[in-house]
Amino acid sequence: MGLGALSLASLLDPVHSLGALRVSTGPDTLPHFIPRVKRVIYLFQSGGPSQLELFDEKPLLQKMRGQELPESVRKGQRLTGMTSGQTSLPLAGSIYKFSNHGQSGANISELLPYTAQIADELCIVKSMYTEAINHDPAITFIQTGSQLPGRPSIGSWLNYGLGSDNENLPAFVVLVTKNKFGQPLYSRLWGNGFLPSRHQGVQFRSGKDAVLYLNDPPGLSRQSRRQQLDDLKRLQELQLAKVEDPEIEARIAQYEMAYRMQTSVPEVMDTSDEPDYIYDMYGQDAREPGTYAANCLLARKLAERDVKFIQLYHQGWDQHGDLPRAIKNQCRETDQASAALVMDLKQRGLLEDTLVIWGGEFGRTNYSQGKLTDTDYGRDHHPKCFSIWMAGAGVKKGFSYGQTDEFGYNVLENPVHVHDFQATLLHLLGIDHERFIYKFQGRRYRLTDVHGDVVKELLA
User: Is the pTM of this model over 0.85?
Assistant: First the structure.
């Protein structure tokens, strides 16, 4: 009965019955243990949101406003070229107020009124840190585990290791907010690196062609396309038998996925049947395709269809000057939709096995870059401490972890390195990060490189 049931299940639903069982390079079968998380939605805030304006209140900075950053606090730490030449590093407290929210008493800025409403769902980490002080290496580091380009992204690692739960959509989908400016986002951030190319992220765009080069040319029927693909597959299989290049197998798989996506992608991109109360929940921007709010709504639809890793990118957080005005605009664009996504997932029962992550690549300095006034200041890059939040499966609710010093410059308690964060994420997905490896050019690689520890205190 056991073998018969397994055989029947594989025929009726091969993706869900067998798709989760994958083998990585080496003897291990994935997942290594029962996962707490089935899918991930990563809301990446590109540019480095200021933790001092959002989640890490520091009253001392207001009391010492305009005074010099003490050398005993800085301890000779590296500065970027943008402030290393400043003759003065005046401390700048946030002009925005903080208050406690929910039963957890989470301390959240007035800039995030909607996020404050879900305070008891959040697991806020205030003690993140990284070695990278500039944008490109820092974004590359948190997305791929290395400051140098060429490594697989998180989504590609998961696609490779865990496979897909939906045979008609990619396991790894990327959504980028349209018409936003800031630090450039390169496709290698969702690239496959040295993994087979079928594991790279697929970017969905707003507009007529959600996926580039997906649609058939005018005059080509569906039947003709199917026949063309069948003939092409036979030719590719002949070439595969001759040269044994695994990329040929990847190419065959990508052509077949593209064929299935011709019907599945238009359907998932269409939000016209969403009721008005959903648009009201996400905000008016949700009616405009390509906005952050619209992409959050799409992320929920992709989660409903069991897409494994959904990556959103939102630029514009690099506020070296005019920070009070600029960060207010950024929060207006992102706060309501981010909170709505968590609430929407919860009301549909999806938050029980979905992990939502919100955060950037590093934090901002406690001193002002440029001239400090009563109403204006800027903040430079600061890798030594920043904040992120998570919500959903596997993490503690209404929980704040880690502490920075009273100046908001160094981690005081429970530091969480980028590789610790990545190790914890993999753990929630049922993966031991030290065993999840891929051998390339004679070396064994992993997302967490050669270190990283699971932060067990964050686990529910």
Answer: yes
